[in-house]
């Protein structure tokens, strides 16, 4: 069994919840027992200046052709939706749900959250 070194003040605050072994600040797994530890939550994703309503209408009416993705600035996946007819309808339905729940992202990775 490895010997424990005295931990510095930065690592002393972060210990394994399972065995109490000191954790590296960037580690997500305890090297002693293998317990998983998620890192601290990251900052919330930025909010887009685009609106849900136009994207939702485009998705509902001609979404199988990726029109809402072109509006959101996601040109590459818009072209893929044209070629696959909205991922055979499954991709289109998933996008519709993401739009309604406010989890759809624009081409820059910002969430589209405002309806009007």
Total helix count? 5
Number of strands: 0
Number of domains: 2
Based on the structure, what is the oligomeric state of the protein chains?
single chain
Written description of the protein model:
The structure is a single chain. The protein folds into two domains: 1-42, no CATH class; 43-116, no CATH class. The protein is 41% helix and 0% strand. The protein contains five helices and no strands. It has helices at 9-12, 52-62, 67-72, 75-88, 90-101. Helix 2 (52-62) packs antiparallel against helix 5 and helix 4 crosses helix 5. The model is unreliable at 1-12 (pLDDT under 50).
Question: Helix and strand layout, with pairings?
Answer:
Layout: H1 9-12, H2 52-62, H3 67-72, H4 75-88, H5 90-101
Helix pairs in contact: 2-5, 4-5
Would you summarize the structure shown here?
By secondary structure, this protein is mainly α.
Question: Which descriptors would you attach to this protein?
Answer:
116 residues, mainly alpha, 2 domains, elongated, disordered N terminus
């Amino acid at each position: 069994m490895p010997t424990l070194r005295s931990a510095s003040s930065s690592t002393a605050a972060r210990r394994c919840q399972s065995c109490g072994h000191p954790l590296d600040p960037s580690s997500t797994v305890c090297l002693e027992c293998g317990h998983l530890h998620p890192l601290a939550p990251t900052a919330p994703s930025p909010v887009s200046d685009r609106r849900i309503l136009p994207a939702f209408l485009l998705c509902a009416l001609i979404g199988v052709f990726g029109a809402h993705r072109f509006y959101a600035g996601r040109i590459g996946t818009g072209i893929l939706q044209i070629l696959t007819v909205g991922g055979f309808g499954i991709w289109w339905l998933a996008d519709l749900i993401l739009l309604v729940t406010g989890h759809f992202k624009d081409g820059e990775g910002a969430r589209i959250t405002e309806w009007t």
